[in-house]
Every structure is written in C-alpha cells, then in structure tokens.
Sequence to fold (617 residues):
Amino acid sequence: MIDTLVQPFIEFAFMRRALVGSLAISLTAPPIGVFLVLRRMSLMGDAMGHAILPGAAIGYLLAGLSLFAMSLGGFAAGLAVALAAGLVARSTVIREDASLAGFYLVSLALGVMLVSMRGNSVDLLHVLFGTVLALDDGALLLIAAIATASLVTLAVIYRPLVLECFDPQFLRSVSAWSSPTHLLFLVLVVLNLVAGFQALGTLMAVGIMLLPAVAARFWAEDVGGMIGVAIVSAFLSSVTGLLVSYYVNVPTGPAVILACGAFYLLSMFVGVRGGVLWSLLPRKHLEA
Amino acid sequence: MQNRLVALFGAALLLLGQPGGVQAGDQVTREKLKAVASFSILGDMVKNVGGDRVEVTTLVGPNGDAHVFSPTPADAKTLADADIFFVNGLGFEGWMERLENASGFTGALVVTSGGVMPIVMRGERHDHDAEDRGGEQDHADQAENEAYDSQGGGNTDPHAWQSLFNGKIYVTNIRDALIAVDPEGQETYEANAAKYLTAIDAEDKAVREAIAKLPEARRKIITSHDAFGYFGNAYGLEIVAPEGVSTESEASAQDVAKIIRQIREEKIPAVFLENVTDRRLLDQIASETGAKIGGVLYSDALSGSDGPAPTYLDMFRHNAGALTAALSS
Fold:
C-alpha cells in the first residue's frame, strides 16, 4: 500500500517536482485564502485571473512570448487592479466586491482589445498559465521565494490584519497601520496568484488558495487554527490529486482541486465546528 | 424644448434618408479575385496557384494557433467581401461555421482536404473528447471554441497537409476551385499549379532521402502537439506526443509518465517543440530523460517572413533539416 503511494514519486522527477511545488504553494496560498474568506473577498482569485490579461498583453507586445515579460506585465496589471479596487473601496461608497468587479472587467476588456490589435491568434493566457507537471527550476524557485516572502510578511502584519478583518474602525482609530496593512495584503494576494498562474495554471492556483480555507471554517474557531487546517488539507489534497492523476489518468490540476472539494464537502457534514450532521444530533438539555 | 427635440429628430431622419453617393463605375482593369484562406499554410498554397489573379487574405496568420482562433468582426467583414473561402476541413477550424453564418458569406466555400485519406488520432489516450479534457484557461473565451473543436468527426487528425502527397491533393483542389470561380484564368491557374506541383514533388523526394539516411532505430521523436501523424506515416518516422491533437487539452500525470517511460525504454533520441505551444512540459520531459531538444518544428502555422519557414515548402525544408540534425548525431 505504501508502495503504491510512494512509487510514482520515486520513479519520476516530474512527480517529485510537482510534490515540492505543491508543498510550496500549500504553505503560501491557504493562509492568504483564509483572510480573503474572512474579508468576503473570495471571488478575487477568479477576477484576478482575468484582470492580468492587459499586463500580459503588453508584455507580449513588447517582448514576444517571454514568460518573464508576460508574468511581470501580468503582475503589474493585477496589482494595479487590486490596489485601485482597494483604494476605491476605502474612500468611496462602493464596497470591496463591487469595486473589484468594476476594475477587473475594465482590465479584461482592455486586455482582449490589446490582444486583438496585434492581429495574431496566439492564446496569451494559454501560454502564460502553466501546469504543475511542468515545473522547471525557475518556476520552483519563484514559488518558493514567494512562499518565503508571503509567510514572513504575513507574520509581520498578522495582528493588524486580523484586526482589519473584524474591526477596521478600531484599528484606524488606534494605529496608522490600517491602510498599509490592507495594501500590503493585496500585494501578497496578487503576487501569489500571478506566481500560481504561471506555475500551476489558474484552476489550481485559485483553488488551492480558497477551497482549503473555506473548508477550514468547519474545523477551527480561531484564525490561527484555520490557517493550520487549511495548509495541511491543501497539501494532502495536492498529494491525493497527483496520485489520482497518475493512476486514473485524469488531468492533474482538476484532480487536485476536486480533492480539495471533496474535503470541503466532507467538512461541511462532519466538521467539528458547524458540521451539518452534528447539528442533527439531539443535544443535551441544559439544566440549572 | 420639446419642439426643438422634434425638429432635431426630423432633421436627423432627413439626413439619414439621403441616398448614398453614386458608386464608382466598374473598373476598367480586371479586378483581382478575392480569396480568403483560413490559415497561413493554405494562404501560401493559394498564393502559389492563384498568382497575380488572386488577392489572398489569411485569417490565422503566421505563428497563430488555429485551434484556439477567435474571429473578429473585421474577419467577418473580410469574409463577406470575399469571392472564395478556403478551409482545411477535417475539424481543424472549429469556428468556421459560425464565422460563415455571421458574415453572410455568399461565395464559394472550398474544403481543401477533399479527397484526402484521413487518419485517426494516435493512441488510446486520445479517446477523450477535447471537451472533457478542456484546459484550465479562461472559460468565456474557450468554451465556445471547445464545443466546435470536437465536431470534426471525433478523432480525425486534421493536419493532412503534413504529407506532401496530400499537399498535392490540396493544390489540385485549390486549382479546380479557382477555375470554377474564375474560368477566364484557367490557363494561368493550370500553369501555376503545374509548376508548384513539380516543386512539391522535388521537396517530397528530398525529405524522403533525408529521412532514409537516418538509422532506422533513431527514427522516433516526441513532439508536444500531435500534429505530425501524416508526416510520420508518409516518411517513416514514429511520432509520440504527450497531449492530444488540439493545443487545448491538458496532460495527466499518467500520460507524462508513459512518455518518459517510453523514451527511456525505446531510447528515443529527440524532443521537438512547436511554434504554437508552451514549451515547459516538453522541457521537463527532455531534462528528465536526457533526450535532446531538437529545435522547433512548424506544424499548424508558417513562421513570419523573416523566420525559417515562411512558405509551405520552406516549412518542410526546415522541419526535415531539424529532424535530421537532431536524429543523426
């Protein structure tokens, strides 16, 4: 049994790289996902996948099919959209979700127009988005570097970030760290997403960020606990997805995300905090 | 205020009702036949047969990927003005029907692969529909393409032009179609086509000789896109590919593992990239097996005019050269 689980990783280097890449992304993306879920910004990942298009298009127009140029452009575009949305949300009547929706749609339309102007039908995003099975040295280093940077940054801004989630007015009244924390958080989100897209493809990048975080809600009460559950479940789902893709011959990205999804459904029913099945059990009568 | 609005509205109506300016009279010089080709390889063939009598526009240009092409209104307009539209058929252009309907094209539609003996996509892993294995990209852009992409009779390999013998069939179809639409040019078309067919024959012989020089054990390659089935059949090369025919499918870990095992066992010497797909998966396979990266092969599109494969015959010359360079060492 152990043999079947371990053998693919022994035999093939690409499986080992996929494992390492998944570990790196499982360390960095789920904690960010937990905060996205807490701040009701869950659909941001999907929006970002579209918002980076004009940046990638400009990178392509300037430097051809250079992954570096397109990723850098994508990162700049994603950052511009995220920061603009954040600023608008903080200073006008528009809320986070609406402001993000507004900006990412504009960004996407701009991107489509830029791509068509070139007159070439190369599918830019198709070229830009990678797959976990093809992690070369550059991609692995990129994810690992971003994982390190994200974890350190999260550790530094952890307290103001948590306070921002639950009582932003209080934070603003006692500290000047409110805006910088929020903006720094947005930078982390975009960084992780763009690196994730380039290395793993959109589905896996966004999925690993959000699904474990959503599932963790059913297992832990405090933010730290949620982060821990999210990281562990993300990594175990990645391993499961890789093995299923290997033995059952299905694409890897979807397999990993479906594994996360299965854990999410399981958590919904038997999760210790708020699982549906527990609430159906008869409860002890409270007595004086 | 209301009166002013009514007056403005009335004036606008009057202006719009004016008849358009008189059209320029028929030109004294012969107008060129307007042809549209779906992709660069067909465009090149039509130019060679049509010569000066035909003005050719290509929809999917050099280095473009026809599998994921999304037509624009400009394309619809180009097609609406055209007299004749050349497509490959065999399911290559998933977007063709919609473009035809949208543009109101009333000219002649020519399927250049008519009469070609199609081959089925290789290997049992290609049983999956393109739809089931659809990649992770932007759904809004790709969902429509995927639906049409898989309509080419399920598993038919559309890259028939990769065999020069089929190339000759294409040229004769193009020649006959041009004659049918423009009978006055019959002599020109027949002369151009005859010259071109001779050139194709010469190139065919050259490719056969080049491949024949390679030791038989080394006549196997890996490419990232299963576009060389016809080439492999025609010239005696074994082609293995980790993905399906369309550039949209995503490989599974088992597919990649099988390829690597196969390369190791059969000692396949070279891995070839393509000008329309992402190279990272192939790089990974090459580095893990020690197979050589043999360079770029041109499959679905020609290169730009300053590239190594600006015409159909140049494409074969380049591909054969790259293959022999990688496989003979």
